[in-house]
What we know:
Layout: H1 2-16, H2 20-30, H3 33-50, H4 55-61, H5 66-78, H6 81-86
Amino acid sequence: DNKAEKIQQLYELILSLDNIADCYALFEDLCTQKELEKMAERLYAAKLLLEGKTYNQVMEVADISSATLSRVSQCVQYGNGYAKLLK
Length: 87
């Protein structure tokens, strides 16, 4: 599948980055500022959930919709990425 190949290439490019400056440069080219902020906010919300914060506590401090928080919560509970990255 062509989409799968493109995604694979993206992941390989990210893994090839040598430093934070290269990471900034790539993501500034790839994403809008708003997209970067939303991804960062999802990571922040996941971190708070992993620390044991409730939905209400997360909603008070994170700029995230309840629908997005629900998805983040599902990924925290049943996914693989957040737990590995944030613990």
